[in-house]
Every structure is written in C-alpha cells, then in structure tokens.
Amino acid sequence: MATDIETTGSSAPYGPDNPAPVIEPPRARTSRTPKTTRTNFELYGWLFMRLSGIVLVVLVIGHLLIQLVLDGGVSKIGFAFVAGRWASPFWQTWDLIMLWLGMLHGANGLRTIINDYAERDSTRLWLKALLYTATVFTILLGTLVIFTFDPNIR
Amino acid sequence: MSSAVMDKAEAEAKQPASHLITATFRIRRFNPEVSEEASWEDFQLEIDPKERVLDALHQIKWEIDGTLTFRRSCAHGICGSDAMRINGRNRLACKTLIKDLNPDQPITVEAIKGLTLLKDLVVDMEPFFQAYRDVMPFLVTSGNEPTRERLQSAEDRERFDDTTKCILCAACTSSCPVFWNDGQYFGPAAIVNAHRFIFDSRDEAGEQRLEILNDKDGVWRCRTVFNCTEACPRGIEVTKAIQEVKRALITRRF
Ligand code: FES
C-alpha cells in the first residue's frame, strides 16, 4: 500500500553497523552551555527598544512631515533650508537624538536578527563586527557633521 | 469540517453501514541505517474519521509497515510523548482527530523541529530537558522542614495555576522560530516551568530563577510570536507566562 513519492535514498552503504549521521539542528543546548553571566544587558536592550521606539515614532514622523509634506514639500529642501534649520539648537538636538536613537535602535535590532539566524559562531562574529563598525562610523560621522556644520562653506 | 461531514454522508450513501473513509498519511521518514536523507512516504488507510492521528499511526505500524517509529505512552494526552508536526502544526497525535484535519487531502506528519532527528518521528529530547533542568524546576525552601503540608491560599495557588498544566511534550518549544535556529535559547517550556515556581508563594528561589532567565538565552529572546500558545495541547497561555516573567524582571530592577 505504501508508495514512495520522493525517492532520495542515495546508494551509500548505510547499515545497522554503519548508520548515517543523524539530522542535527544548529546550536543545541548541552550541560556545557554557558551559564548565566549575571548582567542586565539583554534587559536594558529590550527596554531600550521599546522606549526608543516610542520616541522615534514622534521624531521620525515629525521629521518626515517637515521635510516632505509641509510648506512646499521636497521642493523646498536645499542647502539653505538645512543651514537654516541647523542654525537653531532645537533642530540640532532633534536631529542628533534622532540619529543616535535611530542608529542604536536599528543596530540592536540587527544584532537580534544575527543572534537569531546566524548559525555558526564565526558567522556571528563577522556579521556583528561589521554591524558595530558601521554603526559607530555612522554615528560619529553624523554627530561630527551636526556639530561642525558651517553654513558659509563654499 | 463541513466538507468532511459531507464526504462522509456521500460515502455512507454509496456503501451503507460503512463509517470508514480513505485518508492519506504523508509521513516524513528517516532511517539512518538506510539513508542519510529524510523523505516523505504516503500511506493510504481505511479509517474512521473520528479516530485520532495516533490510531492511524498505530494502524500503519501494526498492519502496513512495522518499521515506522514514533513515541507514545499514555495515548490520552497526559504523558506528552507524542508531540509531532501534523499538517504543519505541532500537536499531540493522541489528541488530534482525523475529522478535524480535512482528510480529503494528504495529512502530513513529521517530527517536531529544532531537535536532533534520530529516526522517523523520534527526536533527541535531551537539549529540551537540559533547558528544563537549568531553570531548577523543583521547590526550593529554607529553614526546618514543616511537620505538615505547606499551606497556600487559593489565590496564591491561582497565581501559577495555568503553568502547572505543562506535560513537557515540547510542542511549544519546537514551534518557536527562535528555538529552530538557536537551540541555546531556553525555549517556552523551560520558561513556563520556571514561571510555575517563580510565582509560587511557597518557593524561595524565584530570584535565582529570574536571574537565570535574565541571561542572553533567556526570556529576552522571546519575540512574542505566539506559536507556543497556539501549539500548547494543554491550552496554557505560554506567551503570557513568558511576558509575566519579563515583567517580573523589569519591576524587580526598577
Ligand atoms: S501518548 Fe501520552 S500525550 Fe499522547
């Protein structure tokens, strides 16, 4: 009565004395799995995602409204427009907070995704190294620009 | 399922007194002594749709192919040994009726995911029980042993009533996408069993268990996917229990 709908059996001589390797999932827990590290890093990371998310909703929607919708929309954006806004410490702070929160929020999210999906330890290491480098670079560069912006540059 | 009922009515009209239907079971087989790869195999059965998937597996094993391997013990949803992936969802074979599965189409049965596949529907449960042991699933107290039971009010008992129902079948843990990719995550079942003691007024190691679950493989890896709540054959609100542990951790800190 049984019908094979998909015969994938290879001709390798497997037998009771010579079984094939069992099908293992990545990264199983064993009694040697690292024990607790006693830090609150993940707790703070989790909280940070929730809190920064709420703040970012306000900052980003406000930003998009100002840049793209109100007052002529995209067409008004130019060097002079940006220079005008950054003359005020209020918009400087707004953009600075948005930069830091956005970058850290995104980086932590990607860190989580790497933890979830990268199977081998070396893949994890390299992806995270790349992620942290890119994050630090972008944050530093952005901060530098906001603070040292010179409207009279030619 | 209405179509199943209709089919049954039709079938009865054709051959009176027959309550049996023909159902196809598509089972993912793996036998390392024959091949290194798993493959799907179809079995056609004449079976009463009011029977359970476990009965179909028995019928296959006893009448068609004795090499079919699966775990079961109580056959009544108590022991938790026959969790498997039926039509893509984790369930207990002994609690799943065939008529609830749309038997017009092949019913797929495969082992639960995220644990080492040993043979056919049997997986290595060791990592699952390792996570269970790691949360200290036993009563911890200090001081002298009382001469009578440790009493508890009905409200205190109610606090963790839901999580006492766990039968450790691994349906929740092996339905969790985080666990599929990283078996180092404690998984819902271990957290449920930690919850059972963390919120028990008689227990004194709640703090220690919270500390264990505060780690990088602990509750913070939960993405509230709700697969575990959906999979639980005992109807435990698993995701809610995990969230309660998270809340306990946060309120403890602030
Ligand atoms: S056989 Fe015991 S739970 Fe299904």
Please provide a written account of the structure.
- The complex is a heterodimer of chains A (154) and B (254).
- Chain A has helices spanning 41-69, 79-86, 89-117, 121-148; one strand at residues 3-4.
- With 154 residues, chain A is mainly alpha-helical.
- Residues 1-10 of chain A have low confidence and may be disordered.
- With 254 residues, chain B is of the alpha+beta class.
- Helices cover 34% and strands 14% of the residues of chain B.
- In chain B, a hairpin with a 2-residue loop joins strand 6 (117-119) and strand 7 (122-123).
- Chain B is elongated.
- The mean pLDDT of chain B is 90.
- At the A-B interface, strand 1, helix 1 and helix 3 of A face strand 2, helix 3, helix 5 and helix 9 of B.
- Bound molecules: FE2/S2 (inorganic) cluster.
CATH-derived architecture of chain A: Up-down Bundle
Number of domains of chain A: 1
Rounded to the nearest angstrom, the radius of gyration of chain A is 26 Å
H/I helix tally of chain B: 9
CATH class of the largest domain in chain B: Mainly Alpha
Going by helix content, strand content and strand pairing, the class of chain B is alpha+beta
What does the main sheet of chain B amount to? 5 strands, mixed
The number of distinct structural domains of chain B comes to 2
Task: Characterize the main sheet of chain A.
Answer: none
Layout of secondary structure:
The complex is a heterodimer of chains A (154) and B (254).
Chain A: E1 3-4, H1 41-69, H2 79-86, H3 89-117, H4 121-148
Helix pairs in contact in A: 1-3, 3-4
Chain B: H1 2-14, E1 21-29, E2 39-47, H2 53-64, E3 83-86, E4 89-92, E5 107-110, E6 117-119, E7 122-123, H3 126-134, H4 154-159, H5 177-181, H6 187-198, H7 206-213, H8 227-231, H9 238-253
Parallel strand pairs in B: 1-5
Antiparallel strand pairs in B: 1-2, 3-4, 3-5, 6-7
The complex binds FE2/S2 (inorganic) cluster (FES).
The site of FE2/S2 (inorganic) cluster has 12 residues of chain B, from loops.
